[in-house]
Design a protein that fits this description.
Pathway: Secondary metabolite biosynthesis; terpenoid biosynthesis
Radius of gyration: 22 Å
CATH topology: Cytochrome p450
Structural class: alpha+beta
GO cellular component, one term: membrane
CATH superfamily: Cytochrome P450
Number of strands: 12
Shape: globular
Pfam families: p450
Family: Belongs to the cytochrome P450 family.
Keywords: Heme, Iron, Membrane, Metal-binding, Monooxygenase, Oxidoreductase, Transmembrane, Transmembrane helix
CATH architecture: Orthogonal Bundle
Bound molecules: protoporphyrin IX containing FE
Number of helices: 21
Length: 477
């Protein structure tokens, strides 16, 4: 497990195992736990869509530790379906399009902040993280980061730092926790340690903020900018009790989860993208030229979907850096997983289906799937956006909601905010890259590694999350 989670660079062992053993193999976890590592596309599609699998124990524990019981990420079965159906209203293509002016304002402000940085290598992650927090709080609650208050923002930073720390001790602790009965796990959460204090404070802040916002909205009625909570509360039709309508408590319970889910993955993806642009200065120039071309030819607003290089670049960043590089599921009954290609077992038998027993933990190896040479080309380990333009990228049966990638996963638990994320990312890259140039620091000690700590993150030499880049404003190229 340590080789899987704590190599110097994420995937150092996992990608080799995939080459050696193929897209399905068994791995021994802590205390003899048996994990099935899966990157076969048909198997992944099956696990994601079958009701024979649910979140595995590690995800369940993390979600119940961080978020409210009634939030969509924690819910299961019929309750999950009802919450999803109700929340969809805030994340449709048209609802997301309404956010465009806001995305553009926040991204412009982030570009201004980056412009002010000295030319010395600087960590860009905090600026990106603050900007995406600002977007999510305005879209969900119509509140700016300032309105949330300094204590909230500080606690948000602490909770993200906590979520992105992964040590051998923590991996072991998690393995132990998975075996604890639920009541012991709940009791452990009340321990007076710094970690649990931060988590309790975060939950308290989110609950208080969610309940206050819902109360104020119910009292004030709908006015001015309509945000996601307005839509969920559906103030105008509250009395009619629509089939999927959420209660006020259920709306408030989504607050903390939406803040974390909507902020961190987006900020990290932006950081990885800018890092790759710094590593590929020629591509960065071509991308900027495309942006300036569209700026010069816009008659009304910018249509980001029409920019080929920008979208190829975003897809490649999502492919190489999927936030959920490893996603855990557990079989809730005996079942069979079909495979796209036959594999040889340790006894030499060729099989095209795998029988799994109830309780089997399946690791969906998303990062490995994104690097299968049979699907993405022989150079699948390289960052090469042009694969999306020259037909190399996998175009087979659709897996995820976007570009056949599993960065947003798929099936009934597919990321609720994927359209939101794509538009936000398009706008941010456009604003930042059309106005600023990103370069790698000369000093090797500033180099960045990739680690998996609940999500895929860039880390500095000291092991902390961050990405050092030299940023300078573009005059005329
Ligand atoms: C690059 C950005 C993003 C990535 C890579 C990403 C990825 C994911 C992934 C992999 C999951 C599935 C987790 C699981 O089942 O264990 C997920 C779930 C979720 N995401 Fe995202 N996400 C992103 C942005 C967003 C945004 C912007 C929002 C909201 C505004 C959002 C809201 C959610 C919610 C609510 C869920 C839970 C869905 C459920 O359990 O039914 N995400 N996301």
């Amino acid at each position: 497990m340590l080789q899987l989670f704590l190599p110097a660079e994420y995937g150092a062992h996992e990608f080799n195992w995939q080459k050696l053993y193929g897209p399905v193999y068994r791995l021994k976890g802590c205390f003899g736990q048996d994990r099935l590592m899966v990157s076969d596309p048909l198997a992944l599609q099956h696990v994601l869509n079958s009701n024979h699998f649910e979140h595995g124990p590690s995800i369940d524990n993390a979600v119940s530790l961080l978020f409210e019981e009634k939030c969509v990420m924690a819910a299961k079965g019929e309750i999950h379906r009802r919450l999803r159906a109700a929340m969809h209203i805030g994340f449709t293509a048209s609802a997301v399009r309404e956010c465009l002016p806001l995305f553009e304002r926040v991204a412009q402000a982030a570009a201004e902040r980056l412009k002010e940085l000295p030319r010395l290598p600087t960590d860009i992650v905090p600026v990106l993280s603050e900007a995406t927090l600002n977007t999510i709080s305005q879209v969900i609650l119509s509140s700016s980061t300032q309105e949330l208050g300094q204590d909230f923002v500080l606690n948000n930073t602490q909770i993200l730092a906590l979520a992105s720390s992964q040590s051998a001790v923590q991996i072991l602790a998690e393995a132990v926790a998975v075996r604890l009965p639920k009541w012991v796990w709940r009791a452990v959460m009340h321990l007076p340690t710094t970690t649990f204090n931060i988590i309790r404070t975060a939950k308290c802040f989110a609950r208080e903020l969610g309940e206050r916002t819902v109360r104020e909205k119910m009292e004030a009625g709908r006015q001015g900018q309509i945000d996601v909570f307005d839509m969920l509360l559906d103030l105008g039709r509250w009395e009619k009790k629509r089939k999927n309508a959420l209660t006020k408590e259920e709306v408030a319970a989504q607050t903390g989860m939406l803040f974390i889910a909507g902020q961190d993955n987006t900020a990290t993806l932006l950081a990885f993208g800018l890092l790759e642009l710094a590593r590929h200065p020629q591509f960065q120039k071509e991308l900027r030229a495309e942006m300036h071309h569209f700026l010069g030819h816009r008659s009304q607003g910018l249509v980001y979907d029409n920019m080929p290089l920008l979208n190829a670049f975003i897809k490649e960043t999502l492919r190489v850096y999927p936030a959920g590089a490893l996603q855990e599921r557990m079989a809730i009954q005996d079942t069979v997983i079909p495979l796209a290609g036959a594999i040889k077992t340790s006894t030499g038998e060729l099989i095209t289906r795998i029988l799994v027993r109830k309780g089997q933990v399946v690791s969906m190896a998303v990062a490995s799937y994104h690097r299968l040479e049979t699907l993405w080309g022989e150079d699948a380990h390289e960052f090469r956006p042009s694969r999306w333009l020259d037909g190399t990228a996998y175009q087979g049966q659709a897996l995820g909601p976007y570009a056949n990638l599993l960065s947003f996963l798929g099936g009934p638990r597919v990321c609720l905010g994927w359209r939101f994320a794509i538009l936000e990312i398009q706008v941010f890259f456009f604003e930042l890259v059309s106005k600023l140039c990103f370069a790698l620091p000369k000093d090797d000690s500033a180099s960045v590694r990739v680690r998996f700590a609940n999500t895929l993150i860039p880390v500095l030499q000291n092991g902390e999350k961050g990405a050092l880049l030299c940023v300078r404003r573009i005059e005329h190229e």
